[in-house]
Specification:
CATH class: Alpha Beta
CATH topology: Rossmann fold
Largest sheet: 7 strands, mixed
Strand order of the largest sheet: 3-2-4-1-6-7-5
Number of strands: 7
CATH superfamily: Phosphoglycerate mutase-like
Number of helices: 5
Mean pLDDT: 94
Order of helices and strands: EHEHEHEHEHEE
Helix content: 25-40%
CATH architecture: 3-Layer(aba) Sandwich
Number of domains: 1
Length: 172
């Protein structure tokens, strides 16, 4: 698989959530989260990655994040709301991604920490210096995303096979 044929995965943490008297799964976005989700959407659109598929947790805050972010995209990818992304570990997220059909070249996963950050860290066998340093300094705050690439089938996605290409997080 050539560089042009490599697959891209964007790991996107939901935006800042509010803490009303509801269960964790139903927590909505805070005002700041709504602004950050839209900004993240603009930044994701600027990557010019033609997403084929978005895998989104079923939690309210991830669904709201995705709705605001995708509004900024030039085209809307197929979206699958996946219960297994909610509170998933990095290993569980890999299992979900391993089921992705190979006709999907570029996938966006909208999820939660610590799973999303952990997945970005364990997938990155190598990294461009600048995004690695930014991610190391900032961690993975709400509305942050990491862009990774790898070659091969989704079934072969495993720790260490990807390259961290880019990282973005909203300003504090």
């Amino acid at each position: 698989m050539s560089v042009a044929e490599s697959r891209r995965i964007v790991l996107f943490r939901h935006a800042k959530a509010d803490w009303p008297q509801v269960n964790d799964h139903e927590r909505p976005l805070a005002d700041r989260g709504r602004m950050d989700a839209a900004e993240a959407g603009r930044r994701l659109a600027d990557t010019d990655i033609p997403f084929d598929l978005a895998l989104c947790s079923t939690a309210t805050r991830t669904r709201e994040t995705w709705k605001l972010a995708v509004h900024e995209f030039p085209h809307r990818p197929k979206t699958v709301y996946e219960e297994r992304v909610y509170e998933a570990s990095p290993g569980e997220l890999i299992a979900v991604l391993n089921e992705t059909p190979d006709d999907a070249q570029n996938v966006l996963l909208i999820g939660h920490n610590p799973g999303v950050q952990g997945l970005a860290e364990i997938l990155s066998g190598s990294a461009e210096a600048e995004p690695r340093d930014r991610m190391s300094r900032r961690g993975f705050p709400t509305a942050a995303f990491a862009v990774l690439s790898f070659g091969g089938s989704w079934k072969t996605l495993e720790p260490g096979v990807a390259t961290l290409l880019d990282y973005w997080a909203p300003s504090e």
